[in-house]
Amino acid sequence: MNFKAILRIIPWIVVLILLVFLWLRRLGNYTSPEKVNTDYTLVLQQIEKLGKLELVKYNYKEVVEVENIAKRYLDLGYFYIPGGQDQKAILIAQGEAVACLDLMKIKKEDISIENDTLTILLPQTEICYYKVNLENSKFYDLRTSRDDKKAAEFVDQVYAKAEKQIKIAALESGILTDAKNMSHDILKPFVENITGMPVLLIYPEQPKSIPIRIEK
User: Fold this and answer.
1) In this structure, are strands 81-82 and 117-121 parallel, antiparallel, or unpaired?
2) CB–CB of 106/120 below 8 Å?
3) pLDDT of residue 53 exceeding 50
4) What is the pLDDT confidence band of residue 2, given thresholds at 50, 70 and 90?
5) Dihedrals phi, psi of 204, to nearest 5 degrees
6) What would the pLDDT profile of 109-137 be if each residue is shown by its tens digit?
7) DSSP-assigned beta bridge partners for residue 8
């Protein structure tokens, strides 16, 4: 092959290289949205594996008093006919409340990418469970009916009241707010590690309560 033949081939080589470049670029434009969808699915799968993520635990020790007064007949104040036995209990209860984030509630549409930042809309934090630790709780005073069934129902009532007080105390102490703050410390670095990009975690706005004025 002489020099003139080589010069005639060079333009065709340049055109071929240009066509290959344009074809690869166009192929990349078609395939990039599929790659983003795959990333969303991967992130969602990894998050869902965490299930209900326990974030904050509050421990409580409280005194619970419950008294059931039996029905009285011919109650004249100083004289009455009892219809049963009065029941009274003072329980020194120890228990706990745990707040968590149910990551199974996150949907694919809650995940988005904007300006190279992954944004995840999280569900509201919630109390996973609250309970009285029976082994660490004890009755300071317990007077129950001689009827075994009534006595058992009364003891269950005492424990139920103790558990309810634990839940109320946890909510009033801000356990859900603490859980939100903790979720950023735990979940944010986890997601950034699996995606390799900055992560923004946001919560939906809670509706504001509107005071209702009642005209007298």
Assistant:
1) unpaired
2) yes
3) yes
4) low
5) -65, 150
6) 888 888 888 888 999 999 999 999 988 99
7) none
Three-state SS sequence of the chain: CCHHHHHHHHHHHHHHHHHHHHHHHHHHHHHHHHHHHHHHHHHHHHHHCCCEEEEEEEEEEEEEEEEECCCEECCCCCCCEECCCCEEEEEEEEEEEEEEEEHHHCCHHHEEEECCEEEEECCCCEEEEEEECHHHCEEEEEECCCCHHHHHHHHHHHHHHHHHHHHHHHHHCCHHHHHHHHHHHHHHHHHHHHHCCCEEEECCCCCCCCCCCCCC
Angle between helices 175-195 and 3-48 (to 10 degrees): 160
Residue with tokens 């007298």: 216
Residue type, 40: Y
Alpha-carbon span 95 to 159, nearest angstrom: 11
Neighbours of 112 (CB within 10 A): 14
pLDDT 10s digits, 143-185? 877 888 888 888 889 999 999 999 999 999 999 999 999 988 8
CB within 8 Å of 161: residues ≥ 6 apart? 64, 66
On whether the CB atoms of residues 53 and 99 are closer than 8 A, the answer is no
**How far is 64 from 70, CA to CA, in rounded Å?**
20
